């Protein structure tokens, strides 16, 4: 038999089967013995106290002493049962504490990942962005796909093909996420060549170029 202690919606490590079985046996045996001894006390107490005769009184006194002895024995058994219950409780509490610590650690890790992601986005790389000229419409890109000005794609000199990149226009704080599927010439400053749709979302079609923050996404 296994006992699981639940904490934060998850089942913890099962208690030792032998330890839990020993506690069960202990409780069952003492409960049964206490019931038997209570019945014996009732039988003794139901015997009427003799009104006359020294011999009858002397007979009753040992029975009364036996009744008191049994009552004391029951008290000891009750104490042992209480001790068994406390042992079980002491075994359970550390498991509950361990579950709580594990849940808090997972929550802390999740928060740290979010903070790292935000810091990574805030960093990025400052550079320039332009967009494809109309003469490239329908041409095959370095990835083999056909360039479509209505799709959110980009050309980059070094980033792996298929990388998703967030581009932020520093002039108006507009942003767009594009997929790198082509190559372009490498410049001294970081550079990215965007599709017309991406340039439209960043609102720099009239200017033809813009200062941007280039943030590769995982």
Give the key terms.
single chain, 218 residues, alpha+beta, six-stranded mixed barrel, two-stranded antiparallel sheet, 8 strands, rod-shaped, disordered N terminus
Shape type = rod-shaped
Rounded average pLDDT: 74
**Spans where pLDDT lies below 50 across 5 or more residues:** 1-15
Strand content: 15-25%
Distance between the termini: 46 Å
> What is the chain-wise order of helices and strands?
EEHHEEEEEHE
The structure class reads alpha+beta
How many separate helices? 3
Count the beta strands. Answer: 8
Quaternary structure type: single chain
Strands in their spatial order, largest beta sheet: 3-7-4-6-5-8
What is the helical fraction, as a range of percent? 40-55%
Please tell me about this protein's structure.
The structure is a single chain. The chain is α+β, with helices and mostly antiparallel strands and 218 residues long. The protein has 3 helices and 8 strands, in the order ββααβββββαβ.
In short, what is this structure?
This protein is an alpha+beta fold. It is built from 3 helices and 8 strands.
Strand and helix layout:
Blueprint (H helix, E strand, L loop, with lengths): L5 E2 L2 E2 L5 H30 L7 H70 L1 E7 L21 E3 L8 E6 L5 E8 L8 E4 L1 H7 L7 E7 L2
Parallel strand pairs: 3-7, 4-6
Antiparallel strand pairs: 1-2, 3-8, 4-7, 5-6, 5-8
Helix pairs in contact: 1-2
């Amino acid at each position: 038999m296994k006992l699981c202690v639940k904490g934060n919606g998850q089942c913890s490590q099962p208690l030792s089967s032998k330890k839990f079985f020993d506690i069960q046996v202990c409780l069952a045996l003492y409960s049964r013995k206490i019931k038997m001894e209570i019945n014996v006390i009732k039988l003794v107490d139901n015997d009427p106290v003799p009104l006359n005769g020294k011999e009858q009184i002397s007979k009753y006194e040992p029975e009364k002493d036996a009744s008191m002895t049994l009552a004391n024995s029951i008290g000891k058994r009750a104490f042992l049962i209480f001790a068994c219950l406390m042992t079980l409780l002491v075994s359970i509490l550390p498991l509950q504490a361990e579950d709580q610590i594990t849940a808090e650690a997972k929550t802390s890790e999740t928060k740290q990942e979010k903070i790292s992601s935000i810091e990574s986005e805030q960093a990025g790389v400052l550079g320039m962005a332009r967009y494809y000229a109309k003469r490239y419409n329908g041409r095959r890109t370095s990835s083999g796909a056909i360039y479509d000005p209505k799709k959110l794609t980009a050309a980059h000199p070094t980033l792996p093909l298929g990388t998703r990149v967030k581009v932020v226009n520093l002039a108006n704080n507009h942003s767009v996420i594009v997929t790198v599927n082509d190559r372009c010439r490498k410049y001294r400053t970081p550079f990215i060549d965007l599709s017309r749709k991406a340039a439209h979302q960043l609102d720099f079609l009239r200017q033809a170029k813009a200062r941007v923050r280039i943030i590769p996404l995982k």
